Automatic annotation (TrEMBL):
<feature type="region of interest" description="Disordered">
    <location>
        <begin position="1"/>
        <end position="21"/>
    </location>
</feature>
<dbReference type="InterPro" id="IPR001296">
    <property type="entry name" value="Glyco_trans_1"/>
</dbReference>
<feature type="domain" description="Sucrose synthase EPBD">
    <location>
        <begin position="160"/>
        <end position="247"/>
    </location>
</feature>
<feature type="domain" description="Sucrose synthase first GT-B">
    <location>
        <begin position="270"/>
        <end position="558"/>
    </location>
</feature>
<feature type="domain" description="Sucrose synthase N-terminal">
    <location>
        <begin position="9"/>
        <end position="124"/>
    </location>
</feature>
<feature type="region of interest" description="Disordered">
    <location>
        <begin position="810"/>
        <end position="841"/>
    </location>
</feature>
<comment type="function">
    <text>Sucrose-cleaving enzyme that provides UDP-glucose and fructose for various metabolic pathways.</text>
</comment>
<dbReference type="GO" id="GO:0016157">
    <property type="term" value="F:sucrose synthase activity"/>
</dbReference>
<feature type="compositionally biased region" description="Polar residues">
    <location>
        <begin position="1"/>
        <end position="15"/>
    </location>
</feature>
<dbReference type="InterPro" id="IPR056736">
    <property type="entry name" value="SUS_EPBD"/>
</dbReference>
<dbReference type="Pfam" id="PF00534">
    <property type="entry name" value="Glycos_transf_1"/>
</dbReference>
<dbReference type="Pfam" id="PF00862">
    <property type="entry name" value="GT-B_Sucrose_synth"/>
</dbReference>
<comment type="similarity">
    <text>Belongs to the glycosyltransferase 1 family. Plant sucrose synthase subfamily.</text>
</comment>
<keyword id="KW-0328">Glycosyltransferase</keyword>
<keyword id="KW-0808">Transferase</keyword>
<feature type="domain" description="Glycosyl transferase family 1">
    <location>
        <begin position="570"/>
        <end position="734"/>
    </location>
</feature>
<protein>
    <recommendedName>
        <fullName>Sucrose synthase</fullName>
        <ecNumber>2.4.1.13</ecNumber>
    </recommendedName>
</protein>
């Protein structure tokens, strides 16, 4: 293994490959590569490469030596290989975000380093040789516009963009006092509805501002800290200061001192602190066009799920943080947050046909719905997120006009969600000149293997050509990207991240993305969401318990009758319960968990199991995968005779009752288990830990970052059920001997959540990003403008044409375009004239 360690330190796999092949034995390697090319053109995954090598090298000892040597290390870092006889091209990923491409000749084992473009052409040769050889094939290179932008150097820094940008701004402003002039110009431009904020033209240079800050700080030192700003406002205005510094002498002095430090001896921490105090963001627009976006009766409807919950919780947290900031800035401003979504006339009993709907739990936030329009009029019906592309441009045009009217001005920050929301956010932000963020939630490209290279096979059903181009456009248009985990960006040592898969890919016949997105770009940030504290509170906080649900939950868990909501029963009510709740599909692996439990007699003797997910009748499902999992669950219950020990509950949509269900499981001294084969984030893990439940979660994906193994919970390997079930059984045996052991993990889980995974932390991070990246955008405005032109050309010349291939959904009777559907009762927060103007009456 010493050679492997040396290879890890090597700068280039191209340089290392010849020696690695030589070390493995020329005879074996010639036979192995002859085997690879013998079957002709194809794409091979790592598993296939190893399997074919094992078939060629029959001697187990020799094979083991090769796998443990340099070639074994190179193979373990290989994501895939492309065979175009007589060559085999390898895509090697030594570490997250870093890729190398190497071509090996089967004839003489010669090695040549190739570019990502060359590698993509190799892949295209398997699918469409004419396209691969076409010298005029469209190549898209967003990296050409980022060559002068600073980037991270090491994989471990990926996702820490805000800190990196703060450091870079610090270096730009440090040195001579004149270097701070861009910051002075930025402060001079701050205003709200025509009223100047922070400073006026009296302080139009860094030197003047620096001197005025010294005078102001001396003056403030003579006043009590709680002196209202109004008492010294006139004196400050004479010196060139405007509102926004703070509400009292104490907060004003803190802001002044913070800016003084930025101007005299800038450091990244103080830079971020100063920008967080600035009155920059008052109005926020969040886009989520697809599905049925509402606050009740929508979960479970097509394309409607976790994203809705995420955004509503996000809005409440952001409004609360904005109100706190605005108060401390000494301003009398009401922030506004608009969630802009689609108005659906055929609303299926929901409020999705109402134009304006106040968001519960907020004072100044609303859902604002705008219909999809075609040449025939307003589209009445729901449209799948995969078929939504023909409507987005018109939708973006409509909301660009409507939003400034509703908000009585332009927003200060625009946030997109998923492909459709991110594309619309990009179009609107570009038109209005606004700072833009994107949130992917899920990038479909990584869910379907080879869905880029085989896009023509997927397009009739999913229209991935539109989706992948739209995703790439939005990523590059965004000023910053919000993700929930590191793995979402750059994956793990073994698996590329969702964003990383867009670094270079090809859609043969359409375009070759030679540089899509660079995960080392400082626009990437990790801001993990939390759980709604009012719903998912610790089981120990008795005053917050939803006691009205107790009878229903008692029946749900322990009734011995089978019905449409639950089957199976728990014979011994004194046992702790291990609990899991998810969609019933292959990846979520609930049937895998049931089988682990069924096989482990020791675990069955210690605990009961409750699983929440899916239907009981496969005929009620419209999803073939779910139907198969339902049948498998029934088979497992019979095979392992689980009646009396396993309760299967149908999918639940009442969040409040689910929150209390977690706590009732905690009352039994049970645990939550999340056994997914892969989980991008793991919101149920956050919910369970927030309720005080010790948690076992998959080590594949986001939960591995949420839980510190054997400190705040436990990692389990979903691909090794015996090991995982043993780990769970060991935990409950220790709890039986020492009741304090359960309490320890309950408390440590809560501590971890409160330190890292709350909506308050999230809102603070995102608003700080909005402030800092707004200035970052100004510093690089010429480069931003050039890249925007490139995006505009790509959008118009490629995306718009591809959208024409997506069929337009038609209604039997469409509404005329004139007016939106009538709204529900408006919030009393707005003046009558404004409501009249908003609804066109």
């Amino acid at each position: 293994m010493a050679s492997t360690s040396a290879l890890k330190r090597s700068n280039s796999m191209t340089d290392s490959m010849p020696d690695a092949l030589k070390q493995s034995g020329r005879y074996h390697m010639k036979r192995c590569f002859s085997s690879y090319v013998q079957k002709g053109r194809r794409i091979l995954k790592l598993q296939h490469l190893k399997e074919e090598m094992e078939m060629v090298i029959e001697d187990k000892t020799e094979r083991q030596q090769i796998f443990e040597g340099d070639l074994g290390f190179i193979l373990s870092s290989t994501q895939e290989a492309v065979v175009i006889p007589p060559n085999v091209a390898f895509a090697i990923r030594p570490s997250p975000g870093n890729w190398e491409f190497v071509k090996v000749s089967a004839d003489d084992l010669s090695v040549e380093g190739i570019t990502s473009t060359d590698y993509l052409k190799f892949k295209e040769m398997v699918i469409d040789e004419n396209w691969a050889k076409d010298e005029n094939a469209l190549e898209v290179d967003f990296g050409a516009f980022d060559f002068s932008m600073p980037k991270f150097n090491v994989s471990s820094s990926i996702g820490n963009g805000l800190n990196f940008v703060s450091k870079f701004i610090t270096s730009k402003l440090s040195g001579r006092v004149e270097n701070a002039q861009p910051l002075v110009d930025y402060l001079l431009a701050l205003e709200y509805q025509g009223e100047k904020l922070m400073i006026n033209e009296t302080l139009n240079t860094a030197a003047k501002l620096q001197m005025a800050l010294i005078i102001a700080e001396v003056s403030l030192s003579e006043l009590p800290k709680d002196t209202p700003y109004q008492r010294f406002e006139l004196r400050f205005k004479e010196w060139g200061f405007e509102k926004g510094w703070g509400d009292t002498a104490g907060t004003v002095k803190e802001t002044i001192r913070s800016l003084s430090e930025v101007l005299q001896a800038p450091d990244p921490v103080n830079m971020e602190k100063f920008f967080s105090r600035l009155p920059i963001i008052f109005n926020v627009v969040i886009f989520s066009p697809h599905g049925f976006f509402g606050q009740s009766d929508v979960l479970g409807l097509p394309d409607t799920g976790g994203q809705v919950v995420y955004i509503l919780d996000q809005v409440r947290a952001m409004e609360e943080e904005l109100l706190l900031r605005i108060k401390s800035q000494g301003l009398n401003v009401k922030p506004q947050i608009l969630v802009v979504t689609r108005l659906i006339p055929e609303a299926l009993g929901t409020r999705c046909n109402q134009e304006l709907e106040p968001i519960i739990g907020t004072k100044h936030s609303n859902i604002f719905r705008v219909p999809f329009r075609t040449e025939s009029g307003v589209l009445n019906r729901w449209v799948s997120r995969f078929d939504i592309y023909p409507y987005l441009e018109r939708f973006a045009q409509d909301v660009t006009v409507k939003i400034p009217d509703v908000m009585e001005g332009k927003p200060d920050l625009i946030i997109g969600n998923y492909t459709d929301g991110n594309l619309v956010a990009s179009l609107v932000a570009s038109k209005l000149g606004i700072t833009q963020a994107t949130i992917a939630h899920a990038l479909e490209k990584t869910k379907y293997e080879n869905s880029d290279i085989h896009w023509k096979d997927f397009d009739p059903k999913y229209h991935f050509s539109c989706q992948f181009i739209a995703d790439t456009i939005a990523m590059n248009a965004a000023d910053f990207i919000i993700t929930s985990t590191y793995q979402e960006i750059a994956g793990s040592k073994e698996r590329p991240g969702q964003y990383e898969s867009h670094a270079a890919f090809s859609l043969p016949g359409l375009c070759r993305i030679v540089s899509g997105i660079n995960v080392f770009d400082p626009k990437f940030n990790i801001a993990a969401p939390g759980a709604d504290q009012s719903v998912y509170s610790p089981y120990t906080e008795k005053q917050k318990r939803f006691t009205s649900f107790y009878p229903a939950i008692e029946e749900l868990l322990y009734s011995k009758e089978d019905n449409d909501e639950h089957i199976g029963f728990l014979a011994d009510k004194k046992k702790p319960i291990i609990f899991s709740m998810a969609r019933l599909d292959t990846v979520k692996n609930l049937t895998g968990l049931a089988e682990w439990y069924g096989k482990n007699k020791r675990l069955r003797s210690l605990v009961n199991m409750v699983i929440v997910g899916g239907f009981f009748d496969p005929l009620k499902s419209k999803d073939r995968e779910e139907m198969a999992e339902i049948r498998k669950m029934h088979t497992l219950i019979e095979k392992y005779t689980l009646k009396g020990q396993l309760r299967w509950i149908a999918a639940q949509t009442d969040r409040n009752r689910n929150g209390e269900l977690y706590r009732c499981i905690a009352d039994t001294k049970g645990a939550f288990v999340q056994p997914a084969l892969y989980e991008a984030f793991g919101l149920t893990v956050i919910e369970a830990m927030n309720c005080g439940l010790p948690t076992f979660a998959t080590n594949q994906g986001g939960p591995a970052e949420i839980i510190v193994d054997e400190v705040s919970g436990f990692h389990i390997n979903p691909y090794n059920g015996d090991e995982s079930s043993k780990k769970i059984a060991d935990f409950f045996e220790k709890c039986k001997v020492d009741p304090g052991y359960w309490n320890k993990f309950s408390e440590e889980g809560l501590k971890r959540i409160n330190e890292c995974y709350t909506w308050k932390i999230y809102a603070n991070k995102v608003l700080n990003m909005g402030c800092i990246y707004g200035f970052w955008r100004q510093l690089h405005k010429e480069q931003k403008k050039a890249k925007q032109r490139y995006i505009h050309a790509f959008y118009n010349l490629q995306f718009r044409d591809q959208v024409k291939t997506v069929p337009i959904v038609s209604d039997e009777a469409q509404q005329p375009v004139s007016k939106p559907a009538p709204a529900g009762k408006p919030s009393g927060r707005r003046s009558q004239s404004r409501i009249q103007r908003l609804f066109g009456s």
